[in-house]
Automatic annotation (TrEMBL):
Protein name: DUF488 domain-containing protein
Keywords per UniProt: Coiled coil
Positions in coiled-coil regions: 62-96
Lineage: Bacteria, Pseudomonadati, Bacteroidota, Flavobacteriia, Flavobacteriales
PANTHER family the UniProt entry points to: CYTOPLASMIC PROTEIN, CYTOPLASMIC PROTEIN-RELATED
Length: 119
């Protein structure tokens, strides 16, 4: 388990902070009501976001989260190069994984952080 990685998750609607580090949005669709300026992104990585089909199926329903996690992890298996790039980057600087969902515990950023830390 990679414990030396500097990763955190944060809702994109929260104000950017000095300790966010590299701000990475992992959503397929741009979050409603947020301007590009306010987002202060370093990267918007749609390829690491859950597929449209998976996102629509999940619908942010907490009771589906366990299965969502498994399906999303499966999708991420096709992104090993990107995941490795982020792992390497997060050894040197903090990465703030941003998401648009209201639920802070049941979203793709939480799963992605776990996947990055689990190798």
């Amino acid at each position: 388990m990679a414990k030396n990685l500097k990763l955190k998750t944060k809702r994109i609607y929260e104000n950017p902070a000095n300790n966010d580090g590299y701000r990475l949005l992992v959503d397929r669709i741009w979050p409603r009501g947020i301007s590009k300026e306010k987002a202060q992104l370093d990267e918007w990585n749609k390829d690491l976001a859950p597929s449209d089909d998976l996102r629509k199926w999940f619908g942010h329903q907490e009771e589906k989260f366990q299965e969502f996690k498994e399906r999303y992890r499966k999708e991420l298996e096709n992104c090993e190069e990107e995941l490795e790039r982020l792992r390497e980057m997060s050894k040197k600087k903090r990465i703030c994984i941003l998401y648009g969902a209201k639920d802070k515990e049941h979203n793709q950023a939480v799963v992605l952080k776990d996947v990055l830390e689990s190798k």
